Amino acid sequence: MIHRILTTGFLLFMLALVNSVGAAEKDSKAKKNDSKQAKQAKAIFEKIKSLSGDWIATKGEHKGKVTLSVRVIAGGSAVVEREFPGSPMEMITVYHMDGNDVMLNHYCMLGNQPRMKATMGDQKNTIVFSFVGATNLASINDAHMHQGKMTFIDRDSIKTTWTMFVNGKAAEEHSFEMTRKKKERKSDKAR
């Protein structure tokens, strides 16, 4: 009887030991994944912060006009983007960290406010935005911006594509190619 109790106790101890090692390995993998996700999110957010400045459309109906004005605010914790600044169709997008994720809230002229999560695209120079929810959207079938893609051509050139969904499907795509507006030098202002 004592032998059976000792054997059962030993087996239970070994089982608990194996489970705790497995749990520790899972915990270690989860921490590595969190660390990788945190690094990726930080890299994405730094890319977005690097957009600070005014951007001029190089193609389309807005060619030659400032179509985007980007500012880093709140001690570097948020980035505010004004689309079509000063026009009747001006919109605001705010980018920010949320734990290990980069999120955006888009205050759209459609009257709703889509929320999207950013991830790296297939290429390191591309950020993809995916819909995670919205406020003031009566139905997911109502018109709203649902996804986006931002490609960094170089430090002073970007391309963005935003897709509006209606009835659960892509309905319109809005693409913009822009270059950073050069800052005026003091000598240029004096002339």
Protein traits:
10 strands, 191 residues, single chain, Lipocalin, alpha+beta, globular, 45% strand, ten-stranded antiparallel beta barrel
Structural account:
It is a single chain. The model has no long low-confidence stretch (mean pLDDT 87). This protein has 191 residues and is of the alpha+beta class. The N and C termini lie far apart (103 Å). The chain has a domain at 49-180: Lipocalin (Beta Barrel). The protein has helices spanning 2-49, 186-190, and strands at residues 53-57, 66-73, 78-83, 91-98, 101-107, 113-120, 126-135, 144-154, 157-166, 169-180. The longest helix has 48 residues, at 2-49.
How do you describe this structure in short?
The chain has 191 residues and is α+β, with helices and mostly antiparallel strands.
